[in-house]
Amino acid sequence: MPETITVGIAEGSICRVPDKIGTIALGSCVGVILYSYFSDYCGMIHVMMPYNTKNDTRVYKYADSGIEALLADLRAKGLRKSSVKAKICGGAEMFKQLPGNKNLTIGKMNIEAVKETLQKHHIEITAEDLGGTLSRTVVFDPSTRKAEIKIPGGEKYYI
Length: 159
Prior knowledge:
Blueprint: E1 4-6, E2 12-16, E3 20-26, E4 30-35, E5 41-47, H1 63-76, E6 85-90, H2 106-120, E7 124-130, E8 136-141, E9 146-150, E10 157-158
Parallel strand pairs: 1-3, 6-7
Antiparallel strand pairs: 2-5, 3-8, 4-5, 4-6, 8-9, 9-10
């Protein structure tokens, strides 16, 4: 029976058809989904911070080290880096009203770091759902390559 693999905050995982992979409560965090049209495998990370500047062993917590670790995990399953695509969502401005936090918020910083790291690895972003002020829940189905997104109080939609 197919299951949905849950990726927690600052975690990463891979899955294979017929399973799905998902994460909840993407506020200022960014969910990065890596997949290929030539494989039944996909992966997801729940990025909490932009850069791993102190070589933290919790690599999936950060955009840069998390994307690199997930790429390595997928390459170990046979994916060619040249075929990998990305879908990204999250990066909401959850803490916009906090004093002294008017210019560059953690959501924006996470988005920029994710995009920069994907570009560095020549990974095309095929769809994105970023920003806003509400959290998101996302579930990716590697058999359809669609990500189902749900915002609290809203309808489900797909990217």
